[in-house]
Amino acid sequence: MARPRVSLPEGVEPPKAIVKKPRLVKLGPVDPGVRRGRGFSLGELAEAGLDAKKARKLGLHVDTRRRTVHPWNVEALKKYVERLREAGVEF
User: Fold this and answer.
1) Is residue 73, in this structure, part of any structural domain at all?
2) 65 within domain boundaries
3) Which of 33, 58, 77, 91 has its CA 20 to 30 A from that of 46?
4) Residue 28 pLDDT grade (very low, low, confident, very high; cuts 50, 70, 90)
5) How far apart are CA 6 and CA 25, in angstroms?
């Protein structure tokens, strides 16, 4: 986990990015499933109202190589930001 520069309240853990597994051509149209990713894409952060610098300060991993924007990651980020604001964390 990236070390947050902002002190987080107890019980509030940064979410983990979830990405789709690579598709194997030999298996055909089989859904490969999902796995933990290296970090959130810049598009996901932008939709949640964050930039890369703020995200890293909040202890989130950022993967600048990813271009996909998964709705489940955006929802997780929005919930995380909302919980931080409820706890009074300024960023």
Assistant:
1) yes
2) yes
3) 33
4) confident
5) 44
**Residue 13, in any domain of the structure:** no
| Secondary structure of residue 36 in the 3-state scheme | strand
Q: Are 65 and 90 in contact (CB under 8 A)?
A: no
Other CB atoms within a 10 A radius of the CB of residue 58 amount to 21
Q: What is the pLDDT of residues 38-65, one digit of tens each?
A: 999 999 999 999 999 999 999 999 999 9
Banded model confidence at residue 27, pLDDT cuts 50, 70, 90: confident
- Going by pLDDT thresholds of 50, 70 and 90, the confidence category of residue 2 is low
Please answer whether residues 51 and 77 qualify as being in contact, where contact means their C-beta atoms are separated by less than 8 angstroms: no
Q: Which amino acid is at 87?
A: A
Count of structural domains, the chain: 1
Pairing of strands 18-20, 34-36: antiparallel
List phi, psi (to 5°) of 13. -105, 140
